[in-house]
Amino acid sequence: MKFGEKLHDTLETEWRAAYIDYDLLKVIINEALIELADCEGSVALEDRASRRKAVKAQAVSRFEAQLDAEIEKTALFFLEEQGILARKLAHAASILKEKKEEAKGGQISAETFGSLRGELRTIGAPLVSLVDFIYLNSNALRKILKKHDKNFGTRLSVTFVAARASKEYNYIGIFMIQSGLSVLAKSYTDTFVDVYNAFKPSSDASEEVAEHEPIVNDLFKSMNRVKTTNTFYNRLNKHAGIFEEVSFDVLENRKRERTSNVSFTLNAASAFLYMSSYYIVAPTAGLYAEHLGATPALSGIIIAGAPIAGIASALLYSWWSNKSFKSPLVFCSVCCIIGSALYSLAYTFDSFVLVMVGRLLTGFGGARAVNRRFIADHCSAENRMKRSAEFVAASALGMAGGPALSSLIAFLPSHFTFGPLQWNPLTSCGWVMTVIWLVYLIFVIRLFEEPKKNGPEPNGMLRRDDSNSLSRISVTESRSLLNMAPKPNILETVRSNKPLAFCLCVYFYIKFIGDLFISSLPIVCSYYFGWSTELSGWFIACLGLCMLPLDNIISVAGSYLSDREIMKASLTALTVGCLVIVPNFATYTALQYGLAGLTIFSMSNLSEAVLMSILARLMPKHLAKGTFNSGLLSTECGMSGRAAGSIGVTLSSLAGMDNLLRLAFIPVTLVGGLVLVALDGVYGGLEKDAE
């Protein structure tokens, strides 16, 4: 169903005139397209470009003026209805207070209870309708801006909203800032709980309200839908895996960060160093395994050691970050120092077991769950985009920097010993990372500032007073809307939410492919093309650097294409890349491998970015905080995919190097085809506001 039809079918009939006139705005777009088409035949060739430019400018100006008028109309109606409901709710609260004062012991009669409950139920229905009113108009605004951008090649989806939201007084704020609506909804549910407590005092009043008042649960669902689909999420936040809600609360945006810039820099540096440690061994892992008496194919197991340990450590750090950030960062650094040193000492003791212990410790030192949580919890809304960009860029540079550093080390003196310590092309990467992590640890201990706990708000902040007045409700309370709503655990959430489960499976799949390719690259290139470990390292580094411009491409593409279009195109290209990388002809060239590898690497990361965008919408709000949160879920899923991909290299090589690529990528290609077929079947659940 197209959005225009969906809007007509779901809007409140009595409020029809107050909605954004989506059809009128479509007419304006279509009229402008006709004018542009007329320029092709009615204007001389030499004047055609300037005429098209003038017509386009007039069309954009006319569209913006009409959209501004529609937003103003909708905003004024919303504020009027919100005021009516606020007055009714204040009246009910004042009656409750009066009856409690009259009653002995503050316990109201059954008659008063029934009367107040009936009045609150009467208020609840239009309150839910008002929330849905905002939801539909917000979608109408987003859809019409996207339609305009698609037809005229503009970026109004970004510029229109940003230009108006930056003004101190603006009507568009009702679509982006739900604090007033949250305050009203929170006060409504609190008043309901107060009524139940006044009739029959109980510590379980919240649960009783949730069980016996369906309108409260309807309100919760509507508010959650607005908050998860209505705000214009920043794509870098999603790519970074930071799922916490992006707040457009005026007070949130104006608050100052309580953490220093140095701490944020050290947080990003942790992500950079971990990704460097993860990939720095990729070019030489096969040779190291061979030197220790194992097959080069065990390079996949060596690389897999880090994500395997990361699966276990993510849970620890998710819990630890509830209490502290500095302590887990220090602990992670110590793990990486010891792990890197043991990896190099394995050469001296001729022990493959020591290599694996070193890699497991390095993986256990991965603090990505801490890094994400730190940004989400202690970055102001106005700086969240910048901090998220730093996190993504640091990870991408680490992915490129590790192999590049491994190749650069090859230019240093290749062999020397210092007592039991040996420096050579196989151990040098471990010793270098040991020193770097040691320096980083010193910086963290001396310069990282533990974030200050949020204390009581200063005077003047909105706070609910004893009279239940609507005019004095805290922002903190408004964010804890409907705490009485049932909150299933993380496994129940995934099991009951099929679109969410599908997305997580696809996320595992693309992480599996990415590590399958990277882990096999050095031994494949050595076997087929005779590449040195240094050349393989430079190739991996170049692939990692491709991620930096890819983020910009994703951002631009998102203004013109839907998530569905980008996701389907990227997964299709990824499947084609997996097919092309398999040696199907008598001659297998480095060009074929390189182009296929570039496609696999870039498309897996592009698919990941879109998946993060969809996951941000699908993740329930109750998974935003606590130990078992959405960041932990995505981290565990990604780490599992990485580990499985690296192990897959070793398993595929058991049949010989000739068959490694076939056994590794032909099954993956078939799975890719199934994913594409399944995508069409479940996308309606992924894109809840589909065209």
Order of the strands making up the biggest sheet:
1-2
Helix content: over 70%
> Segments where pLDDT lies below 50 for 5+ residues?
230-256, 454-486
Instruction: Please give the alpha-carbon distance between the first and last residues.
Output: 6 Å
Count of extended strands: 2
| Cα gyration radius (Å) | 29 Å
> What is the mean predicted local confidence, pLDDT?
77
Oligomeric assembly: single chain
Order of helices and strands: HHHHHHHHHHHHHHHHHHEEHHHHHHHHHH
Q: Which secondary-structure class do the elements indicate?
A: mainly alpha
Shape: globular
Strand content: under 5%
Largest sheet: 2 strands, antiparallel
- Discrete helix count: 28
Give short descriptive properties of this protein.
single chain, 691 residues, mainly alpha, two-stranded antiparallel sheet, 2 strands, 74% helix
3D architecture notes:
The model is unreliable at 230-256 and 454-486 (pLDDT under 50). The chain is mostly helical. A two-stranded antiparallel sheet has the order 1-2. A hairpin with a 2-residue loop joins β1 and β2 (421-423). α22 packs parallel to α27 (630-652). Helices cover 74% and strands 1% of the residues. It is built from 28 helices and two strands.
Question: In summary, what is this structure?
Answer:
The chain is 74% helix and 1% strand.
Write the layout of secondary structure elements.
Blueprint: H1 3-10, H2 22-42, H3 45-102, H4 110-152, H5 156-165, H6 173-176, H7 179-199, H8 205-212, H9 214-229, H10 235-239, H11 250-254, H12 261-279, H13 285-291, H14 299-320, H15 326-349, H16 352-364, H17 368-378, H18 381-409, E1 416-418, E2 421-423, H19 428-447, H20 475-479, H21 490-496, H22 498-529, H23 533-545, H24 547-560, H25 563-580, H26 590-618, H27 630-652, H28 660-686
Antiparallel strand pairs: 1-2
